Amino acid sequence: MSFEQRKAATLSSLNSSLTDKSPKGTVDAPIIPLLNVLNSHPNYFTTSSCSGRISVFSHPKNRPKGGTWLYITHDPADQNTVLSFLFPDEPKRSSNELVFRFEPLIVAVECKDVESAQSLVSLAVSSGLRESGVTSVKKRVIVGIRSSLRLEVPFGEMGNVLVSEEYVKFLVGVANEKMEANRRRTDGFLQALIGSNGGFVRPVGAMKEKDGNFDEDLKKVDGPAGVASCSLSVSQMVIAGEPVEKLFLWGHSACMLENTTNDYKILVFGGFGGMGRHARRNDFLLLDPSQGTLKAIHTEGSPSPRLGHTSSLVGDRIFIIGGRADPLNILSDVWVFNMAKSEWMLLDCAGSIFPPRHRHAAAVVGSKIYVFGGLNNDTISSSLHELDTDTQQWKELSINGEWPWARHSHTMVAYGSRLYMFGGYNGEKALGDLYTFDVHTCLWKKEEVVGRSPHARFSHSVFLYKNYLGVIGGCPVGQHDQELALLDLQLHVWKHVKLNFMCKELFVRSTANIVGDDLLMIGGGAACYAFGTKFMSPEIGENVVNHQYEGVIGEKNADFQEIGNAQTLTEDSEAERLNDVQSDGCFILGRKVYQREDGIHICFPVTENFCAIFHEKQHNVGDVSEALQLLKECGATKQADEVVEVGRASKSPFKIMTEVVASLIKDKGLSATLLEQLPSRWGKLGDIVVLPVSSFRDPVWDSIGDKLWPAVAKSLNTSRLARQGRVAATGTRDSTLEILVGDNGWVKHCENGILYSFDATKCMFSWGNLSEKLRIACLDCRDEVIVDLFAGIGYFVLPFLVRAKAKLVYACEWNPHAVEALQHNLQANAVADRCIVLEGDNRVTAPKGVANRVCLGLLPTSENSWATAVRALRSEGGMLHVHANVKDSEETLWIEHVSKSIHEIARSEGHSWEVTIEHVERVKWYAPHIRHLVADVQCRQMEA
Known about the structure:
The protein is of the alpha+beta class. It has 17 helices and 59 strands. The strands form 16 sheets. A seven-stranded mixed β-sheet has the order 55-54-53-56-57-59-58, with helices on both faces. Strand 34 and strand 35 form a beta hairpin. Helix 12 packs parallel to helix 13 (797-803). It starts with a helix and ends with a strand.
């Protein structure tokens, strides 16, 4: 019997009204959609299946087979029902052993051939069903789809159950959690099948509500707890015009346009993904949801490709702010698109410095755009900037009220005169807080809202619908189930609505727009090292992602007809040099063949040698001749490489600086080898760009400094330029920063909602301590007195006071320049009344017997002040935060040394303390094999 005949017979039996051989006699309802999709494919059909079950099984002793199910369910188990089987009112004794089980999804699929089997297994494994595999290849090719979510616990014998009722309830809870995880993986696999290019059904286009509208359904959500008495359904819509794959994006932006006739259109800009090779985009697309059409808008002088930017509609102008052009090029530019004139313009904004950032949030009130947070390399911002679109001026707003944590990948919308901000990521965890900002009073407030708050998340989407603020999607995926969170802005109550469709996870880095009474979700996806980049097609209604990697699987991997010598740029590799090429003589091995957007031409990336002989009549280069012949038969022509052209069109600051300096040293008759001393990386202190100490080190640079430094500053788009020196080898740790362009070295730096000001030429500033400052800021020190023995400009003093709310801080510092900055920063952050500055050697000035906590933030070691720290603690002890640079191989020895030394010092001071190392924080690598550590040393009074 052939594969087709066996499939026909099996499907015929599935459609029969007769019972099958399973305990229930019929197919499990939860996986009927999965079976239908599998059986619809010409290369597959299912031979047996189970959606997953929880059971109590009675098993005869010493018999490998036989037994009966006392209880079985394919849904979450009911505790009382299970207990009634195990503890009946009239116990019946039996020698059979009772076993409580959870068994996950298992589906046996016969495949037409081995290749089809391998493809199916790959989809299953990528969806979390990691124990899937080919079980037979002899007479028939069989694949088993399954996972490791199992549970099996013996309960003893009937009438003599050896476990308690509480333990049974606990196990039922565990089994139900596994059943839920099983359901998510099953749905993920189903969506992987639907989204694949393997011939399964693929929903292309958008999704729309059916049987009612969003507004009417929201009225069915009852109660202050926000319990949904309804669910919202979705259906599909096809998009015409431009290929829908152009909307396979994430990290893009979208603005909704509405005219007087309620004709809604969506303008989509930028993002990562799109047609062909995945890359950052600067496509400008117009989506008409009512007509289901997508149109590309072609204009000259548009912004460079980017993602993680924001777009804001003010009148008839769209403002694009910031974003990331490549892993090293974070943007701060502002572009405006005038819809009346259909033209782009780069704004030259005045006012406060607006630092580069991406993954920030923006909202519009009147003619002003408010921007909060964002990410610039490793620096997470907590600043709030205001852009006046009429005067084109930036203004950094001062700190008032309950200032939010620094964050990125959050969301913010305007409702009346208030900004509502939800979620984000602070560098350590996802956030689930809700803040408001009143643009009139300039006050932040952390909102306390009735009802269950949405799960903490980042990279999610928000929208406004009448008096509701909606939250949908985000990371961590899979945690939010099929739920749309809605905040009633009038009653301040959270409500939750179930979304009625098969997939459970929601969008990541997509955009949400309300179109009439529909919710339009565009894009979404992520890059996963294991499974590649995944994208989501546009959806109307309450949308979801396909599985835990949020996106439509099977993006176009077709080929293209190009002759060139560059490497393909991807999200994770585009910082590589264009000329880092590997080849086999003909083709560049690091590049994929791809298809051009016209859908006709195929481009093959080939080497320069191949190009050189392409038009020769005689070819004697081995296998190259066969490749040449094949291309010529297909009518191939030599074309310019698109990747190279893109690279040339979008120059990095390093490239611009190199060209400027090369021209300068050529004019001065200097050696081109000097270009080797140009830095490829640099930092920023406030608005000062700081070059590393190793750059421009040859004395000959000083001879052309009057022209060199302004040229470098201009290429790096800064008005102040400096070169880092080494921290002076003095006890006061003076800075040796050299100002190259600019009047002075005073800078302002806002970090985690805290303002630091200092003279960078006189005081050092450590960027690498951000994580430790965040950790300190998260402590609750409301009733504590702190002693900081190495206060500096307030690195840890300010987090203790501003965020940890310390009762009082003694700040010891002997560098007069740092003391000046510290006193200024205490005033600027309004905490001077809770800090006593002690100038001079801490071994002389530090207080004794007052501290709940002592900070020793000196590198490479603070050991000379350990005794001072012990004396500063109260008689009953407290916590020491001991910083040091430690060789990685000696970390254990250092921890033992700290513990032993503090114990001996305490004993010599007359304290009977128990000294323990509560925690060791690995802050950063200070140098190769040298790590910056912080030991939290707890000292407790020993009981008599």
